[in-house]
Amino acid sequence: MSPYDHFYFVRPIAADQVNWPLANYRYGGIFFAPNIVHTGVDIDAPEGSPVFAAGPGTVVWAGWGLFTEAPDNLSDPYGLAVAIQHDFGFQEQQLYTVYAHMSKIPTVLGQHVNTGDQIGLVGSTGATTGPHLHFEVRFPNNSFDDTYNPELWIAPPQGWGVLVGRVMDTRGLTIEHLEVAVKSEETGITRVVKSYGGAPTNSDPYYKENVVLGDLPAGIYKITLHYEDERNPLKDKDPQTWVEIYPGQVTYFTFKGNLGFGLSRPPVPTLDFLPTVVSTTPTPTP
Q1: Cα separations in angstroms, 140 against 80, 89, 96, 181, 196
Q2: Residue 179's Cα: distance from chain center in Å?
Q3: Which domains are delineated in the chain?
């Protein structure tokens, strides 16, 4: 792993179930309205499946009202939800995880939990189309505006890695909703992800990404973009490149319009991005 990677969390759904994000409900996607951007990932699981703490910490929210920050608001779109303030931080700032749409919450405000402790059951409370877990990573505040892509924080399964990219036009401006197809050269299976849809999504301080696709078995993959530049309409509409996914690691790429692809990692930052132990004093409000 790079010293700037942070696979700090385990999966909140058990390994004996499908526990990776739903392909069409990833971080930064837009699904129900142009002004509603997804600030987490959705993990499909049967009603009543156990939900586990992704890391040790203190429960700072348990119940209805997390999204609206109004306790006991039964119309809150997150439904029954739990937020955990973790015992460790990032860049000397606090880390939180959020678990939403649950059917039952045995945890209580102020309770300390360890990695893997059961904190609830999968449900469909709040604004959902069916049972699943909505999972978020937040820092430095437990706020809707301070989320980051969970696929950069959850440790990938053994033998699998994560693809991270920054897609831009020729001027260097990030492109929203750009479709990125990732095809395994070994299996022929193609997975599709779109670049982030804008605020309130946030990019990792090191990678500055707007595309993440996790849970890729190690191997060679072809990346294809459907890119059009109005200033150069005769340019190839489907630029491609090949990358190798390594177990337990991030593979990084950039795309800059008519300048094409790059596979170099970002320059080394001047800040220390290693995890830092911070205060575990519980914060009673999100």
Answers
A1: 23, 9, 8, 32, 20
A2: 17
A3: 160-262 (2.60.40.10)
What's the burial of 132, exposed, middle or buried (CB within 10 Å: 0-12/13-18/19+)?
buried
Cβ-Cβ contacts under 8 Å for 270 (sequence gap 6 or more) = none
Burial class of 265 by CB neighbour count within 10 A (0 to 12, 13 to 18, 19+): middle
The pLDDT of residue 31 is above 80: no
85 phi/psi in degrees, rounded to 5: -90, 120
Which token pair is 248?
Answer: 């337990």
Q: What is the CA angle 217-221-222, rounded to 5?
A: 155
The DSSP string of 210-222 is SEEEEEEESEEEE
Q: Are 256 and 262 in contact (CB under 8 A)?
A: yes
Contact 88, 278 (CB under 8 A): yes
Q: Which of 15-19, 76-80, 108-112 has the lowest mean pLDDT?
A: 15-19
Each residue of 72-105: pLDDT tens digit?
A: 999 999 999 999 999 999 988 999 999 999 999 9
Residues facing residue 96 across a β-bridge: 85, 138
Residue 82's alpha-carbon distances to 96, 191, 210, in angstroms, are 10, 31, 27
Torsion of Cα atoms, 155 then 158 then 160 then 161, to 10°: 40
For residue 143, which phi and psi values (nearest 5 degrees)?
A: -135, 150
